[in-house]
Design goal:
Layout lengths: L1 H20 L1 H17 L7 H13 L14 H6 L14 H5 L1 H7 L5 H48 L1
Helix pairs in contact: 1-7
Keywords: Glycoprotein, Membrane, Signal, Transmembrane, Transmembrane helix
Subcellular location: Membrane
Protein name: Tetraspanin-7
């Protein structure tokens, strides 16, 4: 049992170190994947398009860096900026969303990349605190399992 807990502890420790060391690469990959999701938006109405809509609605943002990122997509040429960027769903018409100058007044102008990364970074202290407390409990479990094993081994020799 102590060996199993030690293995889990080491896996979590390695994952935390790798996540910390490669955090900049994670950001870069997230940005490139968000750009790909915008480029392929609603081509197949897949989960990536749903994720983009959810992010834009929840964080009140539009595009990767700003709303003008949508102008480079195939979706913009057909339907304009997506409705998930609208400040008010009732006040956004398709004609307004196809015209960038009118759309600027009706959609969120801030990009999603900065908002997502800043939200993740602000929550990292909570995640780190919870991970630290779980690691402490694991270490206590490892120590207690070793003590129990030692106690069982000592008692076997006394019974003879």
């Amino acid at each position: 049992y102590a060996m199993l807990l030690s293995l889990i502890f080491l896996i979590v420790l390695v994952a935390a170190v790798v996540g910390f060391v490669f955090r900049h690469e994670i950001k870069t990959n997230f940005e490139s994947n968000l750009n790909l999701a915008l480029r392929d938006y609603n081509v197949t109405a897949d989960r990536h398009s749903e994720a983009v809509d959810t992010i834009q609605r929840t964080l009140h943002c539009c595009g990767v860096q700003n709303y003008s990122d949508w102008e480079k997509t195939e979706y913009f040429t057909q339907k304009g900026i997506p409705k998930s960027c609208c400040k008010s769903q009732d006040d956004c018409s398709e004609e307004d969303l196809k015209d960038p100058s009118k759309a600027k007044l009706k959609v969120f102008v801030d990009g999603c990349f900065f908002l997502v990364t800043s939200t993740m970074e602000s929550k990292m202290s909570v995640v780190a605190g919870m991970s630290f407390s779980i690691a402490c409990f694991q270490l206590i479990g490892i120590i207690l399992a070793c003590c129990l094993s030692q106690h069982i081994t000592n008692n076997q020799y006394e019974m003879v």
